[in-house]
Design goal:
Elements lengths: L7 H18 L12 H11 L9 H5 L5 E4 L2 E4 L4 H15 L8 H24 L5 H13 L2 H5 L6 H18 L5 H18 L6 H13 L1 H26 L17 H10 L5 H4 L3 H10 L5 H21 L20 H15 L3 H11 L1
Antiparallel strand pairs: 1-2
Length: 371
Amino acid sequence: MTSPLSRPFGLALLLALLVALVIATQRTRNTESDPLGTLLVSESLVERGTLKLDAYGADYLKTFGFRVHEKNGHFYNYFPLGTALLSTPAVAVAHAAGWRMTQDEAPLQLILSTGAAWLILYLLYKTARLYLGPRQSLLLAGLCWFGSSLASTVGTGLWSHDFTFVFSSAALYWAVRNPPWAMAWRALAIGSALFLAYLCRPTLALLAPCLLLYCFCCRDRRLALLAGTVLLAWLALFAGFSQLEYGQWLPDYYLPKRLEDGDFATALWGNLISPARGLLVYSPFLLVSLAGSLGRLGQGRDALGLGLLTLAWPLAHLVSISHFPHWWAGWSYGARLMVDALPGLFLGLFSLLGDLRCGRRPVWAAVAVGG
């Protein structure tokens, strides 16, 4: 008789419970780091229909430090808008139950982080299933979660990375899978997911050209053009909103002025191999993805196109964040700023293992080498 945990459903349930348990019990919490105040914006939308935080009072808002800034005579949260907007329905439910974000933000952050974590696990599994069997895909989803900055970032608070990862992974999956949807619906899904990923974290602007070029070269040119049109429409609406709300075409956090010429070389290597922030120090198995993506570039148009997502995008992201003046990502643990590029690196790992798959041993041998 086989164990229930040997079946995909039992393994999936165990994985989901383990992730929830880790988020609920781990001692490392970042709910009072950059995420603090995010749900205050959601509550302001629920109660007053505005992003402005003026109603909370200047004295109280001063306790948030750099997270809240004054602009045009009003107080706003400094960080990207996406997470606050997407959290508004959950805050509305919590508000109806008597919760207030002035005192109950931390537990609601962890609840939403757990929901984001489950969505991420599901998308990791679905992406891996494009190349591998169900049990292998579940185990790889667990490896990617517990063996990367997902556990040390997404699982510690409601960072802007949390929902960003969901939407960027969804866009990648819909582009690579080629689902049996009408062209217009698929383009709407991809373009909207790209915009929402950008709305949560502006560094995801780098994913859009890579993914649209992949669709243009390896999928359907009409899909790329339609998805790009959807994305541009959303961006135009966002720019118009920003002009009305802030008097400028983009909110401050989204402006390229955040990219500065600092110590680029130190930052570049620091983000890869430093003991505090090094991606390859904390997740050495990703070397398999990078090496595999690099090695397959000469194997035809499809491999070259996939390399846009699994190699070009992560490298462009690495270069971008290494221009940040605070490239070490402040109050956090592990390679936090590289979280946004992980969907591409994981896709490279899954596709490589799919290429190697000629039985069970080659797949797990590659994972063992990477780990």
